[in-house]
Amino acid sequence: MEKTFVIEGNYYGDKTFPSLNNLLAEFGKNPRAGGRMKKTYQDIACIHARRDLKGYKAQCPIKLLYVLVEPSRGHKRDISNVLSFAMKVIEDALQKIGVIENDDPAHVTGFEYRFEYGTQPRIEVTIIEQGGTDECLK
Length: 138
Hints:
The protein is an alpha+beta fold. It has one domain: CATH 3.30.1330.70. It is 37% helix and 26% strand. Strands 1-4-2-3 form a four-stranded mixed sheet, with helices on one face. The two termini are 16 Å apart. The mean pLDDT is 91.
């Protein structure tokens, strides 16, 4: 089974999410500022996941496919920094809203990503359940 949700829009300047470097800079200013930034973007991910997944709960371990679309103009950010921050807050959000029980390797078996440039910044996340019903966790 596959389910997809999309975090669309500009929540960080002309981008959807900040990068890991932006988070580290906030923590450098004040540990609470970094914590607030992480919580803010986790809440954004929760809102979009709840909207699109409509109460879905994974019954088997999952693999995640991330498609990150960045603005095509201006400075191109380091892919690993953008992906690292997005993965952390999105997986925490999926755990918070109950889509997954935990974000450990028993529940999230891996991920793939694509990085693209376009005019409408967004992060598309596809949840792919691994295995059949006999192999499920519950």
